[in-house]
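Q: Got one fold?
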Amino acid sequence: MYRSASTLQFQITSRLVKDNQLGQQIGWIDALRFNAVRDRYIHEPELKVIKVHTCTEPIAAEFWQGNAIGIYTFRDIRDVFVSSMRQRNKSFDSVWEEGFIEQCLENHKRWTELPNVLISRYETIMSDLPHEVDRIAKHLGINLKPNECQAIAADYSIEIQQVRIQQFTNTLLQTPLAPNDHREIVDYHDEETLLHMNHINSAQVGRWRHDLSSQEAILIGDRVKDWCAHNTYPASEFLHSTPS
C-alpha cells in the first residue's frame, strides 16, 4: 500500500537477496511495464527484486503460477491518505478526486488474495523492525540470528534513512536536470534506495486525527469504515457527527 513502509520493505528485501546471493535488485517499475521487465530478465533464474504498488493481471498470474514471492504492507488508510497529501504536496480535494482511496482498497484486495505473499502491518513494522526483518528473511527462506536482524534493522532506522535522504537531496540539487524531464522535483527518487527527498514526513500513527478536519474525516471514514473494521482499526469518532 502507498505510504505504508513499502520502500523500507523493499530495501530490506533487496539487501537480504543480494547479501545471500539469491538474486539482484531491479528497483521500482511501472506496473504497466511489468511484462517488458519480466521478459528482459526471463533467462536469469535468480530472484529479481522489484517494487510496485498496483497489482495487474500479469503480475497476479506470476503468483498463481508459482513464479513470484510477494511482500506487502498496509496501513490505516486514513493515515495513508494524509501521508500522501503531505508527501505529494497536494490538497485533500485533489487526492480525493483522483480516486486514491479506491486505488488503495482495490490493490489491498488483490495483493492479499494472492498466494505466497507475506502481509505486514505498518504499525507493527514501525514498532518492531527487527521482527519484520526476521519475517521477510524467513519468507525468502533465509535464517538469521537475532543479532543479525537487529543489525539490519538499525541500518534502516528513521535517523539513518534521513541521512540517506539528505545525501540524495544534496546531490539532486547540484545536478542539472534534463530539459525534457518535466517531473516536479519531489517526484525524483534515489535509484538505489528509492527514497524521495521528502520521503519521510512523519511516522506517527493516527496522524489523520490531527491533520484532517471533521468533514474530511467523515468523508474518508464513511468510505473505509468496513475496511477499518475488518482490519481492526478504530472507527472515526467523527463518523456519526453532523458536518457544520
About this structure: The mean pLDDT is 90. The first strand starts at residue 23 and ends at 28.
